[in-house]
């Protein structure tokens, strides 16, 4: 039967067959005969076909799921991509394709956007068919001649021209299709191929991007330079052959946009010399700026001509090997697509340029956290993907800096928290000299493995920033396990090294310093806090859970403050003490000779380089990090205590959960805190502790509320003042502002929003205080007052308003 | 099979032999859920777990249905999953969905001692969120562009035992996997 189904006469292999049943063979009877053996109510499937496949499966005869039932017009089926078109018509196709390209990136798929264009489908089909034939040039493989139409009627790329019968207009219109439009489509498809490459590496299919590539590889293996050459050739031709300057200009800019798109991947090869003075790289990314200008010109062109009728349709869904269910064509408004296209170029330009301007590690990290991580929902999907590949290159270097591998970046990150001069990261003969060779090897092997693990942790952290907001949360949750494991392994290694071999950094009193474990703990606490607070913006928490999140986050922030003020600070002081006091004494005792000279040189380096760095790190912690954590914590605490007051009037309940809940509240508490539950240190607060924190029995009289409300007001005020001071320091304080040079705007917004939260909360607290003062406590009930929780000024703080019913 | 009658409406277990019931259910679901499901999806649930498919009938016509399953999750805990719940708009706001969910959960707990019950719903489906969250389901994850219509989804979980609140890596396997 299969033989019968094969096409016998290629010349009559016409797309017309899609319109009627001519040439098709009715196999209904055979099909029913073959399925008769299946017993009723049995699902026959491959063992590899699961529920997920089922949810995407095609179902014969179901109009929602069977692409075979898509109705096409006759002109859609027989659309001839080889026919000549006017320059205006081609300009219209170009613009429509760019719009569809941006629509694809806006949550759609290729078959209902770019691939709905018959020109694109024809060209890719021809290319796939001829790809392996080395005797045909690349340009000829990318033909727009629809070979499936009857030979006599189909448009041709060059037939009449050779006979000298072609008029100038006919020549221009033929070349407009078979050269200009062709090169545009090749270029666009090539960039789609680049997008698919980006997607495969750093994006999530059917989440960030939905491909459905219909088995086309979009010139993945074709060099971009070949494509750009074709585009350039078209631009040259346009300049010589199109008299209408307006349309010629628009066509040229459209082709330029495609060239610029295909230059985007050049940024992956742009080496940045992090934290160093370097040549201005603007000239190397000028195309990203020029793209916006071209987009402006193209978008303002009022084209009197529309795209050829039937040139965009659902044909591809019906015609090609399609594993998907039918979908309507999709296009976002034209204005929006131009804005998004422009924004893609501008975003890439901005982050490439900024990467060349960082002067220190803090500046880079603040940029990653605030400008990228917290603003990710405003960055388009391809710019997001490009950013990730631009940040961590194929060779795992950071921003392509040959001197900043993942290893050096990790060391940088450690130095930035606990200072340089970490003994275990600088093991050499001076340190290991007295040990047996076998022991040395064992130590080095273990250290190398631990460093690899630590690099993996850092790599994981770096992948968080460029991901979509939902994935960021999932990556943070996974990160907790990674960093908790790192803490266990590094702590035991540092302790062992100190106890067995007296190797490692000391505090001032000679106790073990644990600098690497301290850094790991610091990183872990940061991630724990980010995970807790990150859920607020995603609307993960119900109102009755907000108290728990603030309570737990505040607890974690306090631990972080204690850690930085305590252990981290002691480590830094210990290192300074070593350099200033301990090492000079040791040098004095060493007899004159080469060893003494070596130690002296090392001491000089310590004083000139390491000590100032330690000083800078201490200043950053004390002038910025600690105050910012305290200010945030004051706001969390003020909000939390305000919630206690509200719960005392039963305006909200934080201890029972939903009235009709089918599970214990303790289960809800434990489920909410599940991501943190496996962490060894700090251990999870118990449910009992949570309950105790909400004890409001003492709030029986008006008098009892006064001190509580005063505490809230004081915390709001102190948070506001601290944030105002931080803003000032970021802009004016010489020690601080250098860490934010590239993030000033976003950081300013971040802190201004937090200040607005303080002010907004303060207004609500005052309103409540007045209500308590003027009303009998027994009158403040849920029957008379309600609580409204809505979007606030800052992503961590929704507005909480008490309203009279 | 008739299970109970509430407010004059009959609540029934799906009859796997009844082709008409199957057609009615798939018609009701495809008419009111945003995701288009193939016949395989219906059969997957209805054939494997008919005991967790309940219908509400008025004069023999199905006006509400809930379809669920129970399976081990990563072989460490028993997870109930509510796949689909649809009530004919004409009969909404009468507590029918709530009764169906209660019925499902009660039986999942009674018959298979499930550790948790899970489902996904669109972030904009306020009705579904209100219903499930009133019963104690928590939003545990936001899933980016989860549905074909590109809406985000929430994963909701009702935790019933301590296993539901413990990370997978820290739970013992339900049974030893056969050696390959």
TrEMBL record, chain A:
Task: Name all NAA35-like TPR repeats domain ranges.
Answer: 354-798
Signal peptide span per the entry? none
Sorted alphabetically, the keyword list is: Cytoplasm
One of its Pfam families is: TPR_NAA35
> What are the NAA35-like N-terminal domain coordinates in residue numbering?
41-227
Q: Where in the cell is it found?
A: Cytoplasm
Any one GO CC term of this protein is: NatC complex
Its domain of life reads Eukaryota
The chain's coiled-coil residues are none
Can you tell me which family this protein belongs to?
Belongs to the MAK10 family.
Task: Kindly provide the name given to this protein in its UniProt entry.
Answer: Glucose-repressible protein
From TrEMBL, chain B:
Alphabetized GO MF terms: inositol hexakisphosphate binding; protein-N-terminal amino-acid acetyltransferase activity
CDD domains xrefs: NAT_SF
Pfam families associated with the record: Acetyltransf_1
Report the domain of life of the source organism: Eukaryota
Annotated N-acetyltransferase domain ranges read 9-161
The terms describing its cellular component in GO are: NatC complex
GO terms (BP aspect) = regulation of protein localization
Q: Which UniProt keywords apply?
A: Acyltransferase, Transferase
InterPro entries assigned to the protein according to its UniProt record, in alphabetical order? Acyl_CoA_acyltransferase, GNAT_dom, NAA30-like
Q: Does the keyword Zinc-finger apply?
A: no
The entry assigns this protein to a family as follows: Belongs to the acetyltransferase family. MAK3 subfamily.
The entry's protein name is: N-alpha-acetyltransferase 30
């Amino acid at each position: 039967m299969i033989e019968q189904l094969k096409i016998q006469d290629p010349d009559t292999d016409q797309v017309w067959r899609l319109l009627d049943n001519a040439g098709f063979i009715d196999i209904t009877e055979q099909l029913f005969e073959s399925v008769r053996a299946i017993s009723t109510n049995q699902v026959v499937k491959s063992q590899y076909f699961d529920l997920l496949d089922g949810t995407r499966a095609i179902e014969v005869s179901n109009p929602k799921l069977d692409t075979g039932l898509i109705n096409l017009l006759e002109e859609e089926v027989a659309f001839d991509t080889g026919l000549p078109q006017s320059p205006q018509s081609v300009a219209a196709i170009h613009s429509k394709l760019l719009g569809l390209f941006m629509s694809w990136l806006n949550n759609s798929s290729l078959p209902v956007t770019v691939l709905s264009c018959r020109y694109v489908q024809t060209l890719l089909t021809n290319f796939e068919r001829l790809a392996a034939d080395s005797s045909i040039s690349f340009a000829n493989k990318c033909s727009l001649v629809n070979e499936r139409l009857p030979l006599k009627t189909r448009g041709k790329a060059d037939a009449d021209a050779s006979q000298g019968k072609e008029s100038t207009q006919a020549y221009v219109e033929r070349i407009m299709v078979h050269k200009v439009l062709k090169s545009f489509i090749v270029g666009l498809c090539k960039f789609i191929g680049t997008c698919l490459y980006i997607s495969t590496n750093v994006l999530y299919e059917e989440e960030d991007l939905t491909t459905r590539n219909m088995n086309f590889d979009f010139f993945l293996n074709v060099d971009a330079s070949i494509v750009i050459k074709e585009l350039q050739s078209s631009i040259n031709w346009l300049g010589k052959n199109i008299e209408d300057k307006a349309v010629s200009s628009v066509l040229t800019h459209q082709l330029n946009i495609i060239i610029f798109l295909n230059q985007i991947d050049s940024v992956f090869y742009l080496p940045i010399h992090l934290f160093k003075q370097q040549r201005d790289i603007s000239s190397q990314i000028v195309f990203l700026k020029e793209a916006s200008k071209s987009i402006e010109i193209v978008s303002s062109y009022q084209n009197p001509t529309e795209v050829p009728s039937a040139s965009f349709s659902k044909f591809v869904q019906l015609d090609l090997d399609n594993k998907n269910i039918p979908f309507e064509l999709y296009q976002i408004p034209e204005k929006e697509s131009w804005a998004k296209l422009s924004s893609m170029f501008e975003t890439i330009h901005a982050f490439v340029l900024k990467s060349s301007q960082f002067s220190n590690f803090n500046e880079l990290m603040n940029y990653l956290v605030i400008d990228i991580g917290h603003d990710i929902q405003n960055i388009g999907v391809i710019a997001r993907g490009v950013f990730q590949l631009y940040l961590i290159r194929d060779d795992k270097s950071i921003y392509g800096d040959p001197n900043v591998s993942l290893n050096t970046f990790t060391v940088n990150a450690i130095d930035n928290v606990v200072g340089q001069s970490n003994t275990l990261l600088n093991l050499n003969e001076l340190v290991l000299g007295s040990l047996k060779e076998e022991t040395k090897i064992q130590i080095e092997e273990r250290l190398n493995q631990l460093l690899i693990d630590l690099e993996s942790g850092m790599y994981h952290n770096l992948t968080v920033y460029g991901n979509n907001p939902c994935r960021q949360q999932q990556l943070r949750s996974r990160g907790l396990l990674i960093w908790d494991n790192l803490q266990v392994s590094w702590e035991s290694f540092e302790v062992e090294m100190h106890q067995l071999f007296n190797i490692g950094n000391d505090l001032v009193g000679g106790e073990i310093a644990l600098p690497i474990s301290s850094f790991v703990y610091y990183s872990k606490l940061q991630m724990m806090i980010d995970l807790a607070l990150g859920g607020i913006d995603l609307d993960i928490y119900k109102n009755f859970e907000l108290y728990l999140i603030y309570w737990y986050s505040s607890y974690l922030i306090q631990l972080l403050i204690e850690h930085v003020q305590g252990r981290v600070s002691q480590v830094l002081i210990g290192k300074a003490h070593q350099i200033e006091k301990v090492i000079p004494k040791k040098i004095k005792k060493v007899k004159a000779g080469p060893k003494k000279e070596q130690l002296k040189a090392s001491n000089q380096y310590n004083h000139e380089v390491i000590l100032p760095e330690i000083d800078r790190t201490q200043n950053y912690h004390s002038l910025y990090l600690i105050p910012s954590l305290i200010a945030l914590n004051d706001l969390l605490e003020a909000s939390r205590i305000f919630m206690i007051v509200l719960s005392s009037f039963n305006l909200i309940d934080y201890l029972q959960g939903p009235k009709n809940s089918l599970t214990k509240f303790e289960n809800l508490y434990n489920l909410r805190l599940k991501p943190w539950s496996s962490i060894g240190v700090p251990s999870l607060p118990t449910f009992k502790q949570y309950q105790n924190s909400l004890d409001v029995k003492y709030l029986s009289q008006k008098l009892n509320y006064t001190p509580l409300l005063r505490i809230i007001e004081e915390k709001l005020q102190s948070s506001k003042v601290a944030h105002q001071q931080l803003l000032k320091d970021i802009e004016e304080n010489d020690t601080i502002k250098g860490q934010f040079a590239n993030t000033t705007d976003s950081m300013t917004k971040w802190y201004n929003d937090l200040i607005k939260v303080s002010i907004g909360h303060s207004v609500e607290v005052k309103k409540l205080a007045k209500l308590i003062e003027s009303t009998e406590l027994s009158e403040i009930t849920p029957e008379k007052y309600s609580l409204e929780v809505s979007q606030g000024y800052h992503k961590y703080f929704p507005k909480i308003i008490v309203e009279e019913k | 099979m008739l299970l109970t009658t509430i407010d004059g409406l009959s609540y029934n277990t799906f009859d796997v032999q009844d082709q008409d019931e199957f057609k009615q259910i798939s018609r009701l679901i495809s008419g009111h859920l945003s995701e288009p499901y193939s016949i395989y999806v219906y059969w997957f649930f209805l054939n494997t777990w008919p005991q967790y498919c309940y219908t509400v009938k008025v004069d023999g016509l199905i006006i509400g249905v809930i379809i669920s399953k129970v399976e081990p999750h990563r072989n460490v805990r028993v997870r109930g999953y509510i796949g689909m719940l649809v009530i004919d708009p004409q009969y909404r706001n009468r507590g029918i969905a709530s009764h169906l969910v209660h019925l499902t959960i009660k039986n999942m707990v009674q018959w298979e001692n499930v550790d948790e019950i899970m489902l996904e719903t669109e972030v904009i489906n306020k009705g579904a969120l209100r219903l499930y969250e009133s019963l104690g389901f928590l939003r545990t994850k936001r899933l980016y562009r989860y549905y074909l219509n590109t809406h985000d989804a929430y994963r909701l979980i009702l935790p019933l035992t301590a296993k539901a609140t413990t990370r997978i890596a820290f739970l013992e396997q339900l049974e030893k996997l056969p050696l390959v």
